[in-house]
């Protein structure tokens, strides 16, 4: 007999973030035995673990590795969770657009969602509207703190500012750990920094970039995060390509066939970035890759900008993110959030804190 004080959980995606979330979930279940948290489905893109009686063992990761079961289709997962003996939460730890596109279906069936996946909230404006209207009709919850700034409390802070009636004037920051790392070493506040191409190569070797660094340098990841924040601040941004986004990929290298060839040829274009760096230096400034949202003028943009060396954006270290909220209440001294904007444990922390909020609202 199922307990009424029980929540069923389905996890899609068991990579870097998914594995950390599983371990935080196990720890949470021990620290907070009620409501009972029952994992009933876990899958990657190729395998799944689930049973008709909604129980799976305590070794989900080992069982998943050994599983020969294919994942259910997304509508089947929605049916399965909607028929669970008590409320269910879907945790999407993928970066899949297909899973994101299915959120309205899950929400309309009463299944709540927590996720670090940016795709649903930064895709078409229609998908955004479908998600929140399905949630408001069914009462299911949807939280996505880690879709911007990983575990940093960026989204919850912005929601609190808006919900309490503050007027958000401008949001500005460094939203990409990769870009942060690159510019903090290419154009440091002290010293002259390295050659652009050498810094990109080093960042790739240290695992800070995507396998093809062009996927970071095209600015789209930052544009997606800005889309999410702009929408939460009340701007109906159509998509991450509907505002100016500066790509740092030289035109000539846009279509080279591999990331390796891109890195080999990048030194040919070092002089362009060197010019940008020295133009900033001449004014006593440094160059950084930032995103900004000017709420009053509805202007969203992503690209290179110069900052005084004393500015919080200039003084960042390592691969940290920094996000400044300029609001009516905070005046000219913005509310600033800073810290690691990537990494499995901190990203999973944002997912787990969302999960705790949802559990407290549905059980
Ligand atoms: N890592 C970070 O620092 C960080 C920071 C902020 C946000 N995030 C976000 O967190 C999410 C997860 O990131 P990650 O680093 O954990 O990625 P990852 O290591 O690549 O893991 C992704 C997982 O999702 C599974 N998956 C992908 N497409 C799927 C599908 N259609 N159906 C079922 N499973 C699918 C993968 O399975 P297969 O192995 O079978 O493909 C894998 O288990 C992403 O949305 C990412 O943008 C990550």
From TrEMBL:
Active site: 225
Alphabetic keyword roster: Amino-acid biosynthesis, Methionine biosynthesis, NADP, Oxidoreductase, Threonine biosynthesis
Positions contributing to NADPH binding: 94, 118
Name used for this protein in its record: Homoserine dehydrogenase
Catalytic activity, reaction form: L-homoserine + NADP(+) = L-aspartate 4-semialdehyde + NADPH + H(+)
Binding-site residues for L-homoserine, renumbered to this chain: 210
Cofactor(s) this protein cannot do without: a metal cation
């Amino acid at each position: 007999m199922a307990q009424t004080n029980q929540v069923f959980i389905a996890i899609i995606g068991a990579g870097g973030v998914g594995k950390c979330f599983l371990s935080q979930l196990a720890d949470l279940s021990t620290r907070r035995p009620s409501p009972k948290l029952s994992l009933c489905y876990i899958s990657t893109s190729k395998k799944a673990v689930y049973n008709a009686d909604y129980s799976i063992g305590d070794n989900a990761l080992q069982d998943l590795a050994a599983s020969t079961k294919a994942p259910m289709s997304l509508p089947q997962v929605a049916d399965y969770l909607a028929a669970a003996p008590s409320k269910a939460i879907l945790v999407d730890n993928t970066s899949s657009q297909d899973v994101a596109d299915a959120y309205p279906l899950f929400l309309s069936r009463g299944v709540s969602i927590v996720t670090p996946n940016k795709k649903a909230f930064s895709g078409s404006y229609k998908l955004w509207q479908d998600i929140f209207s399905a949630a408001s009709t069914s009462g299911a919850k949807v939280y996505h703190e880690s879709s911007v700034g990983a575990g940093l409390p960026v989204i919850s802070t912005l929601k609190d500012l808006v919900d309490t009636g503050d007027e958000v004037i401008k949001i500005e920051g460094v939203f990409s750990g990769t870009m942060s790392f690159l510019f903090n070493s290419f154009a440091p506040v002290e010293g002259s920094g390295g050659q652009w191409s050498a810094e990109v190569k080093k960042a790739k070797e240290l695992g800070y970039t995507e396998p093809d660094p062009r996927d970071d340098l095209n600015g789209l990841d930052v544009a997606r995060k800005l889309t999410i924040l702009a929408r939460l601040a009340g701007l109906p941004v159509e998509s991450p390509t509907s505002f100016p986004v500066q790509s740092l990929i030289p035109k000539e290298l846009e279509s080279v066939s591999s990331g390796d060839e891109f890195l080999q040829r990048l030194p040919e274009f070092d002089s362009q970035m060197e010019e940008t760096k020295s133009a900033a230096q001449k004014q006593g400034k440094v160059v950084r890759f930032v995103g900004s949202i000017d709420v009053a003028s509805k202007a969203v943009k992503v690209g290179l900008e110069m900052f005084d060396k004393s500015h919080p954006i200039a003084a960042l270290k390592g691969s940290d993110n920094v996000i400044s909220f300029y609001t009516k209440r905070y005046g000219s001294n913005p509310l600033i959030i800073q810290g690691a904007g990537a990494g499995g444990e901190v990203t999973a922390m944002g997912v787990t804190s969302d999960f705790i909020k949802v559990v407290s609202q549905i059980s």
